[in-house]
Amino acid sequence: MNPITTNTNPLTRFRLPALMIAPALVIGLFARPASAQQSLQGPESMQFIEAMRGYLELIDRFSAIAQDPASSGVAAVLSAGEIFRNRTPEEAINFYTKLLPETKNEAVQRAIRIQLAELYKNTNQQEKALEQLRTLITSAPAEPPMPRMPYPPPTTGTPNR
């Protein structure tokens, strides 16, 4: 192992999840314990609990994406597409065209080609759009892909309490 790139400090590995959970912890620290039981019965409390549940689900999904290189790359391609919505299609086409040869992951390459095909179609460059689609069609592997685990993962039995 390379001692320069190996990080044994667990705090640095979990910096992003810790930052995302911090607001919930701060809210919990400032809650008044004496009135906590009374306030759990109101509709505002149920809305807060549902909001926190949604927030925690978002953290779980974001964490799952961040741990999978292909999912992270595809998410980055889509995020770049959102940035380019406020710019010209030619800028997006140049960005993705330069990025494609540097991309190692096949799923990320496919995501880029999908974006390029859409951009070419929207700018009346039908032949270039068809070329990207042809590459997507002909480069698909013959064997079926590994099945993906559904999110959230299926639960079995009674949860631990």
In words, what does this structure look like?
This protein has about 160 residues and is an all-alpha fold. The protein is built from eight helices and no strands. The protein has helices at about 10-15, 15-30, 35-40, 45-65, 70-85, 90-100, 105-120, 125-140. The two termini are about 40 Å apart.
User: Cα-atom Rg, whole angstroms?
Assistant: 22 Å
Order of helices and strands: HHHHHHHH
Largest sheet: none
Low-confidence stretches: none
Beta fraction of the residues? Answer: under 5%
Indicate the structural class: mainly alpha
Strand segment tally = 0
Kindly state the percentage of residues in helix.
55-70%
Helix count, DSSP H or I runs of 4 or more residues: 8
Distance between the termini: 40 Å
Overall pLDDT, averaged? 78
Shape: elongated
Features:
mainly alpha, 0% strand, single chain, 161 residues, 8 helices, 67% helix
